[in-house]
From TrEMBL:
<keyword id="KW-0521">NADP</keyword>
<feature type="binding site">
    <location>
        <position position="163"/>
    </location>
    <ligand>
        <name>Mg(2+)</name>
    </ligand>
</feature>
<feature type="binding site">
    <location>
        <position position="224"/>
    </location>
    <ligand>
        <name>FMN</name>
    </ligand>
</feature>
<dbReference type="GO" id="GO:0010181">
    <property type="term" value="F:FMN binding"/>
</dbReference>
<feature type="binding site">
    <location>
        <position position="98"/>
    </location>
    <ligand>
        <name>FMN</name>
    </ligand>
</feature>
<feature type="binding site">
    <location>
        <begin position="294"/>
        <end position="295"/>
    </location>
    <ligand>
        <name>FMN</name>
    </ligand>
</feature>
<keyword id="KW-0460">Magnesium</keyword>
<dbReference type="GO" id="GO:0004452">
    <property type="term" value="F:isopentenyl-diphosphate delta-isomerase activity"/>
</dbReference>
<feature type="binding site">
    <location>
        <position position="162"/>
    </location>
    <ligand>
        <name>substrate</name>
    </ligand>
</feature>
<comment type="subunit">
    <text>Homooctamer. Dimer of tetramers.</text>
</comment>
<dbReference type="InterPro" id="IPR013785">
    <property type="entry name" value="Aldolase_TIM"/>
</dbReference>
<dbReference type="InterPro" id="IPR000262">
    <property type="entry name" value="FMN-dep_DH"/>
</dbReference>
<comment type="function">
    <text>Involved in the biosynthesis of isoprenoids. Catalyzes the 1,3-allylic rearrangement of the homoallylic substrate isopentenyl (IPP) to its allylic isomer, dimethylallyl diphosphate (DMAPP).</text>
</comment>
<comment type="similarity">
    <text>Belongs to the IPP isomerase type 2 family.</text>
</comment>
<keyword id="KW-0414">Isoprene biosynthesis</keyword>
<protein>
    <recommendedName>
        <fullName>Isopentenyl-diphosphate delta-isomerase</fullName>
        <ecNumber>5.3.3.2</ecNumber>
    </recommendedName>
</protein>
<keyword id="KW-0963">Cytoplasm</keyword>
Amino acid sequence: MDENAAGRRKEDHIDIVLSGDRVASRVDAGFDRWRFVHCALPELSLDAVDLSTSVLGRRLKAPLLISAMTGGPARSEAINAHLAEAAQALGIALGVGSQRIAVETGAAGGLGGDLRRRAPNVLLLANLGAAQLLAADGRDNARRAVEMIGADALVIHLNPLQEAIQEGGDRDWRGVLHAITGLCTNLHVPVVVKEVGFGLSAPVARRLVKCGVAALDVAGAGGTNWALVEGARGTGRTQALAAAFADWGIPTADAVVDLRAALPDVPIIASGGIRDGVDAAKAIRLGADLVGQAAATLKAAVTSTEAVVAHFEVLAEQLRIAAFVTGAGHLEALRGVPLVEVR
C-alpha cells in the first residue's frame, strides 16, 4: 500500500464529507414514511425513561453508536481521541474507521492502545474492509485490527460500489464470503458486517449470518453516498461513473424492516441518514438494536470532545422524549408502540 496516497485519500474523504450536500444520497432514508401515534397521556416521568441496553456483551446508557468516520490521516488522531472520550462520557458505542492503513503501515492515526485507554468501558468496534480479507495476511490483519485497539468486536465493511468507482479500487470480490466464514470461525471476538451507505438486503444478510456473522449494520441509503465521494475526488471519468449512482441503494428504514423480519434474533444496527433522535426512535421501533450516526457527527468530532458530547446529548434526549410521548418507559416498550406508515 502507498501510505501517502492512502492518507491523502482519507484526508480528501474528511474534507468532502464536511463540505456538505454534494455527496448526500438522493435516496430518502425512509423514516419520514413512518409516524408514531402521539400519546397525550403517557403516565410516565420523562426523567425515568430508561434508554439503557446491552449489545454484544456491553451495557450502554443509550442505544447509540458513533459510526465509522476516519481511517488514518494525521488529523484523525485528534478526531478519534474526541470520539473515544465522548463515547466514554456518554456511555455509548464507538466504531472506528477503516484500520487498513494502521495495520499495513503502522501509521496508527489515533487507532492504537490509547483509544481503549480513553474509552475503557465502551463497546468498541474495530474495522477492516472485506476486500482486504482476500490477501494472504488478511486474517492476521483482522486480528491485529482488533488487538491494536482492544476492540470488543470487528466490523467488516462491504463497499463494492465505492471500490468500483474509486480509482485503483478493489474490483475482484470473488471469495469474500468464504473469507468472512473463515474469519468468523477463527477470530476470538464477534464479527459484525456493515455496508457503507447502500444497504444490506435480506438475502445477503441471511448468507452472512449462516457463515457466522454475529450482528449486522444495514448502513442503508439516505446519508453519505460514497460513490459520489469517490467521484468528487476523481477525474471527469470517475465523476461521470459516480453520478449514475446518486440514487442507488436500499433505504435505511426498509433495510431494517426487511432484516428484522428475516432474522428476528440477530442484533441489527441502523445507520445511514439518521438525522435526529426521532429517526433513532423509529429505527428502534422498526427493529434496530443500535442506531449509528457518522457524517452528522463529523463537524463536532473535528472540533472537540465537548462538541461530540453535546451533539449526542441532544440526540439521546430527543430519543428519550420520543419514547415519553409514545408512552414507552424503556426500549422494549418502545418496540411495541403504535407506528403507522404514511404513503
